[in-house]
Design a protein that fits this description.
The protein is of the alpha+beta class. It contains eleven helices and 14 strands. The protein has a four-stranded antiparallel sheet, covered by helices on one side. Helix content is 46%, strand content 25%.
């Protein structure tokens, strides 16, 4: 083979060109991953039940669902969790089980249940997948926490307008919490108790299905949507109706919007901050998503600067996390190794060609001397 290549230089050169062209074309098709992609072998079932205690959730939600799914093939372990206002299951799958088939069976079994409380929301069955973070942006400044969150949400909405950006989340370290304070004297004055007020608030903030009405044009679904989200909405809840008028919750209670108690704080450069996490989905590549975010940065800075005049937000600084740096560094290192290999290949070729040329001249001189 070597002798044939040495005698047919055109074929050897053509083969080398084909290999180089194929390599250049293959570089653009290399799949880029921050970490290897894998699926999670478990299913999540969650049933919100506003106002219910853990004991009520265990009896009315966890036990019926456990009985319904325990006989499904492919399930390895079922773990239930009951907490105030929420019941959930983590269903681990056996190795090699068909995830989609087991998911469909679990979803069908949960949907067929008719013994769940009517006040509970619809069961949510999910097959979670690992989200692939590309980069993160830090929004920081001397501003109230709620203002930073609102600005971060606005930045998220702006990023999602780009066609190459599909999933963006705001990493909120502390959840929202509403506090109601009612004095003892106010309760005594209106002959109310905390249990009565708690029951009135629970009934006034329910989202409940009300069945359906069958018509010629189709079915009409009825649902009561009374869930409230702000302090002003809670203040309007009526407690009593008297001759003087309606007594609202805001008339006797001090209601404040805040955050739940937590030791977690998000800071950047020593100041309060909120992080915006950008992910990629499907066939999107980290570099494409990163370029799309960079294209939106100027628009984000201008919009945040306008909003900061009203919220005392000092500045908006993009901070790209390790995921973005790792991808860029890995790509550059790979490209550098590729270029160095090509240079080494050509250097070696020139050395061997030069050596072969000198050897051939030496042989000719040796034969000439022998001839004489």
């Amino acid at each position: 083979m070597i002798r044939w290549m040495a005698e047919h230089k055109v074929a050897a050169n053509l083969l080398m060109i084909i290999i180089l062209v194929a390599g250049v074309m293959g570089v653009s098709n290399i799949k880029q991953e921050v970490f290897p992609e894998f699926d999670l072998d478990f299913i999540i079932v969650a049933v919100p039940y506003s106002g219910a205690t853990p004991d009520e959730i265990e009896e009315s939600i966890l036990l019926p669902i456990e009985d319904a799914v325990s006989g499904i093939t492919g399930i390895k372990k079922i773990t239930g969790t009951a907490k105030e206002g929420m019941g959930s299951f983590r269903i681990e799958l056996q190795k090699g089980a068909d995830k989609q088939s087991v998911f469909d069976d679990v979803e069908s079994a949960v949907t067929r249940l008719t013994t769940l409380p009517e006040e509970a929301d619809d069961a949510q069955v999910q097959l979670p997948r690992r989200r692939r973070e590309v980069l993160n942006i830090a929004l920081y400044g001397d501003a109230p926490a709620r203002s930073l969150i609102e600005l971060a949400q606005m930045a998220r909405d702006t990023l999602l307008t780009h066609p190459d950006i599909t999933q963006v989340d705001v990493e909120q370290s502390r959840g929202f919490e509403m506090t109601l304070e009612i004095s003892k004297s106010a309760l005594q004055q209106h002959a109310l108790t905390l249990n009565q007020i708690s029951g009135i608030i629970r009934q006034a903030t329910l989202d409940m299905p009300g069945g359906k009405i069958q018509t010629v044009g189709g079915d009409l679904l009825i649902r009561t949507k009374e869930r409230r989200y702000t302090a002003a909405e809670y203040a309007e809840i009526p407690l009593l109706t008297t001759d003087q008028g309606i007594l609202s919750l805001g008339d006797i209670a001090h209601i404040s919007d805040g955050f739940e108690e937590s030791d977690l704080r998000s800071r950047y450069n020593g100041k309060p901050s909120e992080r915006i996490l950008v992910y990629r989905v499907g066939e999107q590549t980290p570099t494409d998503v990163s370029k799309a975010v960079h294209e939106k940065m100027e628009e984000l800075k201008k919009s945040i600067a306008i909003q900061c005049t009203n919220t005392n937000c000092e500045r908006f600084i993009p901070h790209f996390g390790r995921s973005h740096q790792f991808i860029d560094e890995k790509f550059m290192v790979g490209t550098g190794f590729g270029l160095s290999d090509i240079v080494t290949f050509f250097k070696s070729g020139f050395v061997f060609l030069d050596y072969d040329r000198h050897s051939h001249q030496f042989c000719r001189c040796h034969d000439f001397d022998a001839y004489h």
